[in-house]
Amino acid sequence: MSQSQQLHELLGEGSEINIVCHNNPDPDCLASALALGRIAAAAGIDEQQILYSGDISHQQNRAFVNLLDIDLEPFEPATLQNRQPDSLLAFVDHSIPGQNNAVPPETDVDIVIDHHPAEDIDARFVDHRAELGAAATILTEYVRTLDIDLDADLATALLFAIRSDTLDFLRGATATDYDAAGYLHESADQEMIRQLSTPSISGGTLDAISTAIDNRIINGAVLISHVGRTTERDALPQAVDYLVRLEGVQTAIVFGLVDDTIQISARSPDARVNVGNVLNETFDDVGSGGGHHDVAGGEIPLGIFADYTSDDTQLLEMVEQIITARLFAELNLSEETGE
């Protein structure tokens, strides 16, 4: 029995499904959730929710939700506590309870569909393909093999997700990703793809990127910077995507204060550096970090830092010193820096 058939059979046992996105979901996660909902409906599940934690703050992600009219609900632990016996719990684009999601650890999960590096995934149905460029590629395969109705919205969501997660097929794209995109292309709304690809940028995001440019320090081929305090969480990946293009830079890491956390975003086209491992090893004892070898992120609760001082300037100085020192140590860099 194929994986798509196994999934369809499991869905046939349920009366409802809760599809949980990872924190601050991106197009790949959102499109995968939308597709799984369509597959669940075809299997006879009318009661379904797409749940998320954090924010949908990136201008592209907001446009994605609005243009495709994706129905989302904030995740509440009570939702899982009050589940019926035949209610199914699914993760898309992430895999472990309590890691990059608000689901309590040790929660039983029914369905996991993911392409991020992970170990010890435990669920009744697991499709984990770390070699693929996007989770949406896996869902496209299911839509195709199960003959799910592929309307313009679903095709557009999945195609844009694959393009987004592979940086227009420049990062981690495989023949399978290309094949999925080719299948989706004819049914997708190309004008909507264009709109999603060129969203407006907020003043707060522009300010954060500017701050990251000003605060950059370079050690060899490694650039580290921060955006200060910002309400624009998704300005960090946009800043690091910009800075990693600087001549001579092979690894870029940007952090910043967002609410009561330190958010971190990293990029590295350098095959010798696995930034997912770097962030995990550097901050595993105080927070969480991980991702792919070339794209990664992390989050650290401010905790004792916030208790120590209410002065944001002093707080940022402390955070900058400690985060930079830890990264230098993990990357075996000296304290001497360039710009």
Automatic annotation (TrEMBL):
Pfam families, per the entry: DHH (PF01368), DHHA1 (PF02272)
Cited Gene3D superfamilies: 3.10.310.30, inorganic pyrophosphatase (n-terminal core)
One GO MF term: nucleic acid binding
Residues of the DDH domain: 17-162
Superkingdom field: Archaea
Residue ranges occupied by any DHHA1 domain in the UniProt entry: 220-323
Protein name per the record: NanoRNase/pAp phosphatase, hydrolyzes c-di-AMP and oligoRNAs
